[in-house]
Design brief:
The chain is an all-alpha fold. The chain has 25 helices and no strands. The protein has one domain: Sodium/glucose cotransporter (Up-down Bundle). Helix 4 packs across helix 18 and helix 8 packs parallel to helix 22.
């Protein structure tokens, strides 16, 4: 800790972010009255606001803190991470954005049931949505605990509790309509919180002649100490395989993330969904210009950081290490507030997605005799919200963090090996069958989960096997696609009834009248 004043600045920034989140969220409560408001904001969110909200929830703790930490720890080899995160939306734009909006579904399980006409596929999809959502929520909660501890010294369980309380109140109050306003605001808050300190640090570094810049300008040993590790390959013995495997997971995993897909159901039509995605690519690309700055400057001012604190704390510790005093304190406080905005916005989107699935597929069937109108459905959604945060909260308190970016990448790998094949083949391949879809989901999800479990529990010795298991997307994704397609070709008699009509609905532009399709 660097002093009480630093703590007060940071705590004040975090409190202001949480307060702003609740104020905007409760404002959305005045607009939320129906089931459609809570699940898809009545499908009336325009492209610009929806793009800001999508960017707000997509740019998680892994983006705000983890990418800079990996660049600091592993060097320039990690610069492709922002490329992968952004390119996932290009794939989403080209292949599934508009058809998903035309499907008329509320959730991914809704789409799975509509396309496959199968309750089995719906239930399995619901299980995957919840599992991926919880896996993605875990690092948000753990990161909040580590970040709050780094600026206050409080126990690590305090951060997750603060995030859970804030998010639960916001989501339960107004559902998707409320959270849309919150996340749109939080994107711009995060961008400013990351950009302003970055520009100030660069300006002071290059203009004030601090010890770091003077020695580096002379080309002495300091230059080699911070620059050479950045251009060296990481300790991974097979960096090329790891790079392409992770890029594949990020490109296809984006479309399988439940909190991303549900956003496209809030657009008025397919055209608005495509426009939304174009704007998202620009907003995300603008944001990802910032983390590399922190990773590089950390090499100048924090050469021992990897030993003293986790690399996920590079962004928060850099201002105080570079410029001790009031300037560093204020910049660190801004970044602490931005980090909490990242935790809150991503957690909000995930909780909405998980709560929607739990309410639709668990609570409503169990309480079928009691749910007769919008008010009963909304109460089920609010109850599901509390359930949605409970499991990852327990995990965040009682498990050791694996690293923000690494844990999030596992969620991407599982999503890319399960929901992505179902969506792509469901949208574009009319010969998909229920047995084939189920087999692909089972194989892809099982392989990805098994590889992840073996890596975490047994920690194989460095080598080809350890690399393949820790980066499973390169073989799990092809296995899932192959299983789904071969299984479907072997069971062509079980193509869902009404598939031609469903495919026509997915691919016919709005405003075009559909004739009878057999």
């Amino acid at each position: 800790m660097t002093g009480t004043k630093v703590d007060l600045f940071a705590v004040t920034a975090i409190v202001l972010v949480c307060a702003a989140t609740l104020v905007v969220g409760f404002f959305g409560l005045r607009l939320s009255r129906t089931t459609s408001d809570f699940y898809v904001a009545s499908r009336q969110v325009g492209p610009t606001r929806n793009a800001s909200a999508i960017s707000g929830e997509y740019l998680s703790a892994a983006s705000f803190l983890g990418v800079a930490g990996l660049i600091y720890e592993r060097g320039f080899d990690s610069l492709w991470l922002p490329v992968g995160y952004t390119s996932g939306y290009v794939v989403l734009l080209v292949l599934v954005a508009a058809p998903l909006r035309r499907s008329g579904a509320y959730t991914i399980p809704d789409f799975a049931e509509m396309r496959m006409q199968s309750q089995t596929i719906r239930r399995f999809s619901a299980l995957l949505v919840v599992a991926i959502g919880w896996l993605y929520l875990l690092p948000q909660f753990q990161g909040a605990g580590l970040s709050l501890r780094s600026v206050t010294g409080w126990p690590t369980w305090v951060g997750p509790v603060v995030v859970v309380v804030t998010v639960t109140l916001g989501v339960a109050a107004g559902g998707m309509r409320s959270i849309t306003l919150v996340q749109a605001m939080q994107y711009w808050l995060k961008l400013c919180a990351l950009a302003i300190p970055a520009f100030v640090l660069l300006f002071l570094w290059t203009s004030q002649g601090s010890p770091g810049p003077r020695e580096i300008a002379g080309g002495g040993t300091v230059l080699r100490e911070w620059y050479e590790p950045l251009v060296r390959s990481a300790t991974d013995p097979y960096p090329l395989y790891s790079t392409y495997s992770t890029l594949l997971a990020l490109c296809l995993g984006t479309m399988g993330l439940p909190h991303v897909l549900v956003r496209f159901y809030t657009n008025p039509d397919g055209k608005a969904a495509r426009r939304t995605t174009v704007v998202v690519i620009g907003l995300i690309g603008m944001f990802y210009l910032m983390p590399p700055i922190y990773g590089v400057l950390a090499r100048v001012y924090l050469p021992q950081l990897g030993v003293e604190v986790p690399s996920d704390q590079v962004v928060l510790q850099l201002p105080k290490a570079a410029f001790p005093g009031l300037t560093g304190d204020l910049l660190a406080a801004i970044l602490a507030g931005g980090a909490f905005a990242a935790f809150l916005s991503t957690a909000s989107g995930l909780v909405v997605s998980i709560a929607g699935v739990l309410a639709q597929d668990v609570l409503r069937p169990a309480l079928a005799k009691m749910t007769t109108g919008d008010s009963d459905v909304i109460q089920s959604f609010r109850l599901a919200t509390f359930i949605a945060v409970l499991v990852p909260l327990i995990g965040a308190v009682f498990t050791a963090p694996l690293g923000l970016a690494r844990t999030v990448n596992l969620a991407f790998a599982i999503a890319a090996s399960t929901l992505a094949p179902l969506l792509l083949l469901g949208v574009w391949w009319r010969r998909l069958t229920v047995p084939g879809a189920f087999a692909g989901l089972f194989v892809g999800g099982g392989l990805a989960a098994a590889a992840t479990g073996i890596t975490v529990v047994f920690r194989p010795e460095p080598g080809w096997l350890a690399t393949v298991l820790s980066q499973p997307a390169a073989w799990c994704i092809p296995a899932a696609f192959a299983t789904m397609m071969i299984g479907s070709l072997l069971t062509q008699k079980q193509i869902p009834p009404g598939t031609p009509k469903t495919m026509a609905r997915l691919h016919t532009p709005e405003g075009v009248e559909l004739k009878s399709v057999r």
